[in-house]
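Methods — Computational structure assignment.
A single polypeptide chain was analysed. Its primary sequence is given first, followed by the predicted tertiary structure written as structure tokens.
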Amino acid sequence: MCKNVDKTGATDRNRLSRRTFVAAAGAGALVAGTGFAPKKVYAQKKVTVKYTLGWLPEGANIWSYAAKQFWTKAGIDVVIEKGTGSAAATQAIAQGKYEFGIPAAPNSIQQAVKGLPLLSLGCFNYDTTMGVAVRPESPIKAPADLKGKKVGSTLTSGEYPFLPPFLKNVGLTMADIQSVSLDSKVREVALIDKQCDAITCFVASALPKIMAAGINPRVFLYSKYGLPFYAHSLTTTNEYFTKEKALCEAMTLGLAEGVKFALLNPAETIEILFKEVPEMKLASTAKEQLEIGMGVWAANYVSKEAMDKGVGYADPAVYAKMTDLIFENAGAAGDKKPDPAALYTNEFVGKLKLSDAEWAKAKSASAKYALG
């Protein structure tokens, strides 16, 4: 006899009924900001979901693994799979291959411009770190100093379409620089070996490789020059949100707990990742690179949104600005600009907050990794 299977691939055996899950979610609400207090019903009946990273496991998304302990307490077995880029992740979520994922917000918006029904449930990284990197001894002290300089870029990389508006905001045009096309495999090498005066990149991803060469680069983040871009956002489809609202809430709250845990316990979080992905520990520089990636993420997360409104909160003004920028600079013929308010929800976020002392601890621990 065949088991009943829904569109997400869940069977009657591993899918919680809405009534059971809502009751359980209510019982497992946050208590005085300290976390979940799940009742035994969670252990009696679990639900399994698939969750895709936007990229490989790294310091910038390590809190997804820290969240597993909280999802487990809530009765959710989350299968985390590595990604191959946020664009691929958003498409896979929209196609129903994953119930949830953690792509960068701009990619979700870009797919929404093309008609895919994606919804962000919370922001868990407040800066993509798109920007320009130069060597520390470079005479380029400010973005305006890029005039006449050789700037290397991977033309298919996500930050490249926003180089022209970045230059415009600092008083330059593309004609003012020497733009050089680079393969992604040699982009950082071009800066390290002084083949270019500067490179455009996602700084958080490029930084470990550059620093491993003994170079602590000077960076100019797009976000500091009128181009705000949120990064990792918990994403699902509008259809799944409507059908499984209680599950979406529990996933969001669990991820918020994971973020808080990672901010306050970075060393323990790295050990959690090594247990989940043991092959990573084989690389001699893995721990150092994870520390750098986590440090950059943590420094960005100590932001006004999270501090004032709670972990995961997204500023409506930033979503409106991102939507405008993406439609204007990365849109194509036939694309339609979506309503920014339909691209995200703050319904489940803001319930978990850190104390002033906890924010101070997170800021102090990540201070040396602060960019821009």
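Note: The chain has two domains: 18-126+230-369, 130-225.
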